[in-house]
Each structure stands twice: as C-alpha cells, then as structure tokens.
Amino acid sequence: MKLNIKIMPKNGVLDPQGKAIENSLSQLGFENFSKIRLGKIIEVEINEGEEKAIIVAEEMCKKLLVNLIIEDYEIIYDREK
Amino acid sequence: MKASVIVFPGSNCDRDVAVSIKKITNLDPIMVWHKETTLPKSDLVIIPGGFTFGDYLRCGSIAANSPIMIDIIKKAKKGLPILGICNGFQILTESGLLPGTLIKNDCLSFICKIVSIRVENNQTSFSNKYKKNEIINIPIAHNEGNFFADNDTLKKIEDANQIIFRYCNVNGEINNSSNPNGSIKNIAGIINENGNVLGMMPHPERATCNITKLYDGENLFKSLAESLF
Questions:
Q1: pTM, whole model, 2 decimals?
Q2: Predicted ipTM?
Q3: Mean pLDDT in runs of 10 for chain B (229 residues)?
Q4: In whole angstroms, what is the distance from residue A81 CA to residue A58 CA?
Q5: A36, A69, B25, B164: most buried, per Cβ within 10 A?
Q6: Alpha-carbon distance B8 to A36, whole Å?
Q7: Are the beta carbons of A64 and B148 separated by less than 8 Å?
Q8: Which domains are delineated in chain B?
C-alpha cells in the first residue's frame, strides 16, 4: 500500500525556510499572502493491508521520520477499494 | 583516560578531537566505526562534529540510529560520560539522551566564527576547570545550532542547572545581539539530568592548538581527564 507522510513544522516553531521563501516571493512582487511554512512529504510503499500499513507508518514516524518536538505529521493514503 | 571517538560517514572533526585528547591526556583515543555494536572499554565517549549521512532527513537523525548508538545509549543511562560536539550534540538530542532539539539558525545562513560563551555551571566533570561565569572564546561552525525546547522542558533544564554554556558578548552579557543563531535563552551547551551527557554546538577541540591560536577549549578536556582518572 502506498502512503504519503506529510511532515510540517509545528505551529509556533520558527521556520526560517518558510520565512526565506516569503521574503523571496515579496521581492518578486507578490502581495496579499502570508504564513508560508515549508514541510516535506515522504512517500512509502508498505507491503501490508491498510490497517497494518498505517500502524507500521505510525511507528516509522515515531522512530525516525518525525521529530515530535518540532514537527507534526499526517499519514495520507487512498482507502483500499 | 580511555576515550572512544565515534566515527560516522560524514564525521569530519573526529581526528581533530583525537588530537586534542592526545595533547591533553597523552593517550591515543580509540576510533570506533559506527557499525560496531559494542563499545570498547572506555571512560569517555566523544561524538564529534561533521555532517553525518549528509544531514539527510534531519541533522543527526540517521546517525542516532546507527548500530553503535544502541550500546552508547545503554551505557550512557548507566552513567558513562558522553560528549557530543556540534553534529554530535544534534545526534544526542535525536537519540533522546539530551532534551530539546537543534533547528536551523534564525539568520538563515551557515555561521563559522569565533564566539564568546559563558560558563554557567562549573560543577560538572566537563566544566570544573573553568570558573563560574568565565567567558571563553570557542569557534562555532553550523547551520542548525538554534537550540529549541518547549517551555516545560526549558524550565526543567534551567531549574536543574543543566545549561552549561550560553552565548554572550565579550563582557559576558547575554542578549539578542550576542546570540549568533537564535537559540532559546542563548543556550550553547546543556547536560542531561544525571550530569554525564554533555552536548554543545561550539567546538572546544578547535580551541586547543597553535593553528587557531585559541586555547579556551583545553580546560574542558582537562576537566574530563582529571574527573575521570
């Protein structure tokens, strides 16, 4: 099963990369925008059914993929038909 | 003092720190490859600076899961002294041996310069050769040295005197302009609750030789040599 793990900096945690992108967009003349945050998406193929795959993905997040002090995550997938 | 220096792919301060250890203790440290599963008998473990695994995912996150780390974590919990410098500090927070984490510098750039830091707590085996509030000059070289912890964690480490070094100016004043990277409370180095695991972003090994003409790092290694012998 294919899953996407979306990892974002927690609210309130400084996101210097988001800030840098914001500054650059302003310099390009974009207006009326705010709150740019830069995160990442990790794609993973887990050879299990939906229920087990989500459990494994959760474990991967907690053990390595996410630093829960500064990041939130969301596991995104298409429901099995 | 038998010191082990852990070498990961991408470590680049391992030999510098070995030279410092040799200079201060007159003993060669053991260089330990990260794939080993058992530490050789050691009185001290040093996790050196560098860019382990290319800083992929998050700085230190992959190295924190290298085979040797299982034995290091086990022995650290039993009291074995561990020193993590720069990327070594990042590895120690990622492995859960130290609280908090290190995020990108708030200035958005890599910083490589000599900074002043103030010794906040000299009652540890890493810092007892310094005077309390002594101002020392040590180089930093990092992109992710901005120490971050939630308010509860921060209060805990402050109350327990776990902050060992803070960035300051030449007069020892701690404020925003003497903070190179945005670290909360100007934190440059912390110790764990039990006092046997120290992580710091500045490089004491770069302040022990005639090349840099800086010597303020020597007392850190002397503190360890005296405490651990």
A1: 0.95
A2: 0.87
A3: 95 97 94 98 97 97 98 98 98 98 93 98 97 98 97 97 98 97 97 98 96 96 91
A4: 22
A5: B164
A6: 35
A7: no
A8: 3-228 (3.40.50.880)
